[in-house]
Structures are given as C-alpha cells and as structure tokens.
Protein: Fatty acid desaturase domain-containing protein
Amino acid sequence: MEKPERPDAAAVEEEAEDSAENKRQRKAEPGREIVWRNVALMSLLHLGAVYSLSLLPQAQPLTWLWAYFCFIITALGVTAGAHRLWSHRSYKAKLPLRMFLAAANSMAFQNDIYEWCRDHRVHHKYSESNADPHNATRGFFFSHIGWLFLRKHPDVAEKGKKLDVSDLLADPVVVFQRKYYKTSVLIMCFFMPTFIPWYFWGESLWNSYFLASILRYTVSLNVTWLVNSAAHMYGNRPYDKYISPRENRFVTFGAIGEGFHNYHHTFPFDYSASEFGLRLNPTTCFIDFMCWLGLASDRKRASEQMIEARKLRTGDGSA
Structure:
C-alpha cells in the first residue's frame, strides 16, 4: 500500500503563517476588539447588584425610598438633561436648572455630557449603521451592553468629528462638568448616595453603598440601555415603518418616558419625545414644571397636523 506523502516542511510553515495572519486580521476587524477592562468592570458591577438584592430585607424602608429617589434624579440627568436638552436642544434651560441636570448626569455615570451628546447625535444621524455606537442590527446583546465591551467602530469617531458640537462647547456648564467629570462622578454617583442614609437615619454604610449606589446605578444603566436595544426591536411603528425604532411601553415605564422611540426618531426635536404629552412621561412632567417655575422655556413640539400627516404617509397603521 502506498504511503501518504508527507507534507513539505516549508509548506507547513507557510500554512501556519497564513493561519496566524488570518487570526490577526480577524482580531483587527473594526469594531471587534474586546475591551477586557470593561468586561471585567461590568461583570463585577452586575454581580454586586445581584448581591445587593439580598440586603433589601435588612435595610430600612427609608433607604429603599432614598435609592429610588436617586434613581429618578439619575434618570432625569439623562432624559431631561443629556438627551432632550443638550443632545436635541428641544427646550431651553436657565443656569440653575442646567447645573442641577449636569450634577444629575454625573450621578448617572454614563460618560460626560459632551461625549454622551456627541455619540447620541451620531446615533440619530447614522442609525443602524457602523457609525451608530450601539447599532441594533448587530443584535440585542450588542445594542444593550455589548457595544461597551468592544472598541468603537472607526466610523463612530469619523462621523462624530464631522458633526457640529459647538453649542456644547459654548455651554460653560458642559465644559465644567467635562473638566471635573471624574470628581463629580465620585461625589454624585457613589459618595452622596452612600453618605445620606448613613448620616441622617443611621443606615449602615454597607447597605447604603450597595443599595443606593451599586444597585441603583446598575438598574439605571440597564433601563437606559433598553432604549438602545428593546426599543429598537420590539413594538409598533405608527409614525415611520421604514426605521427600526419602536414604541415600547415597557421601556417607556422604566425609562420615565423615553420608550416612545418610533415617535422620537421621527420627530427628534420634540421636547416631549412623545405624541401624548404627559402620559407615561415623567420627564415631560418635570420639564413642564421647570417651565412653570421659570427655569425652562421654548419647548419645541410637533404639531398635530404634522404628526397625522406623517402617520398616513409612512406609519404602519397601528394606533
């Protein structure tokens, strides 16, 4: 029987080199490089949040209420602040309100206002493309949290540089928060939520830290991420059936009014981010209240005629 021919040593070496080169190319594919530091930190954070649940029975009810209050402040820093005010300029806010929203945004710890708004404007302009930081076409996990585990696709930075963000840099509140962001996060996201229950009603520092800081922070992150993931995949599209964002009531409830996402991507300038005004929209209630106090003004709104015309032209026919 004829023996199989042994492969030439040079051919084996060449094949090994080709294989190594292919691996290097796959690793270097844009937007695919894993950031292990983020993977480790987010894993620890979520493990801490799961552990926090076991502390609920032994914590004081006042601490539960405080953690929820911090969650609302955190959410407003994103929804009324970074999103509706600074990203979309859908209303105007006076200095005291901008200072409050900047502090609340630091409590949210989701990047400083400038970076958050720049990436969000890229998300709207190039939605569902490689330039979208949390491109929903790459799946639920990627658009929810996976985008934080990978290096940004080069298109995100390239397209982001072409956007006009001069309005952000012209706001001294945004510039100040960006300059002292790390310090403000330590104070607003971790120190203050932990200190208040311990100092004022004698809660243990351990319970205060895990419930008002770790659990609250983790929940607020995931609620925000659901706008990027679930609200781009599940729900109806009464305003524009040709885009991915959907109306999602579950997300609306958790994200204090941000789940009317088909409407928002159709009319991004609308301060209410919804056709229905105050309904299921605590953020809109907050902005309206600030206007009543004289701290906000110039709320932009899509007209009823504009909304109905758009429904008839591009909507999916759902209510």
Notes: The two ends are 77 Å apart (CA to CA). Strands lie at 92-93, 296-297.
